[in-house]
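Repro:
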Amino acid sequence: MSVPSISARSLSISYRKFGAILLGIGLLCALFGYSLASILVQPQNTASLSNNAWTPAAPMNVARSFSAFATLPNGSLLVAGAFAGAVANSSLSSAELYNPNTNKWTMIAPMHVGRAGALAVTLNNGKVLVTGGLGNRGVLTSCELYDPVTNTWAMTGNMSQPRFDHQIVLLNDGRVFVVGGDFGGTENNVTETYNPSSGVWTTDAPQSLARADMIAVKLPNGNVLVAGGHTSKVETLLSEIYNPIANNWTQTGPLNTPHGDAGGVMLKNNNVLIAGGYTTYNDADNTIQYLYTSELFNTTSGSWKMTGDMNLPRGEIGLNIVLLNNGQVLVPGGNYQPEKGQSSSELYNPASGTWSLAGNMSVPHGEGAMSVLLGTGKALAFGGLLPHTCTYCGSGVTGQDLATTVADLYTPTSTTGTSSTGSGASGVQVIMPAGVGTNHALNFQPVHIRVVIGLNNTVSWINDDTAPHTVTSTTVPSGAASFDSGNMNAGAKFSHTFTVAGTYTYYCQYHSWMQGTVIVEAS
């Protein structure tokens, strides 16, 4: 099969995403209206710096984004390949190791092929398999094995399909499962498994839908959950489970919101969390909408439900989500606008279903950044593209995407972060009722509320409608902070704690007839 020659950014890094870059803010306002709640939020570094759990780690030797990475049996971190930038012929073959005990990076033998956007997994024999990615002449079918004992790379069997933006899972029997992906702008539904004993790939039962940029998470029973992503450049709600023993697929409950290039992780309570990503990429009109939202998959019922919203929209976090030893989930950085990463981070608490800000990294780790849990219990965030300016030219990119060498360490603490749900005093709930997005006779329920500081001054708004809504302050008393929920999709919850007495008015940015009042009394 002939592999097309493609520049590094003509694929989903952003084959689908360049169209969103550098559109004028005024044009966005005029054309896209409600999506600005997720698109144009500026990341506010509101976590207390005195309680910042992030510290700079030693920088990598080479600036990298979209690297393959895997933890070795001795606890060291292997990082291989990358984009040096967003220009053609920038896929790297170099590799290095990070030692968490000494906080040092060491260059090691390079791969045989330069590749970026490849995915890696540590095999049961201690070697690391690196699959596919974008080479300097197109998307790759080739794979390589790294032997940490001899510090050598060896080519192994080729996949049947070139793959980029795919997913990789180590199965319980030691084989490696790959699914989906993109080759030159077209998704595929072909799945295959790698046998480490023979070095050979075997084609498996195909997905019902060709897609890329989805999540793939191994479930407690050894099956693999695949959800979200995009097909024919349109985001999908489809969620399927692959059974590697029976070699078949079963469709399960759909997502509530499309999530492309989201973070996915298995929680310690055996639920699966999907967070952030994007819900709209449209090459025709160059729109993008990054997400605040997150959902939980119940492995018993086979259904998804909405859980707490993040404080900020976070896109391009497919490689940037970490399950900590304490059971919480860390999401560092991510994009809040096209080509604009952020330095803030958030924690998800499965017990409460809420997100909290978790401090700021030393630089914004945006698109192409990676993070991993170390054997020390700390999390390492590294690489990615720094905020930059690019111009979409239809067939290529002018300007410079700058990958970074910077790495940051997160030390989990029990007190880090500022809750997004106002978990202090008890509070009052306000509902956006079903149908309020289309029925002008409906409104917030109740419309007017009265709270007392120190007694019930945390107000929570819950979206029971299918349409997205916002809770945005119109007027606030002198000395009080304004508030804005950002985009609230179906099932989303937003909370705000009022600490200044007075009358507050608010409305929904998408539905002007939705207006409410909060009267806050001193204790």
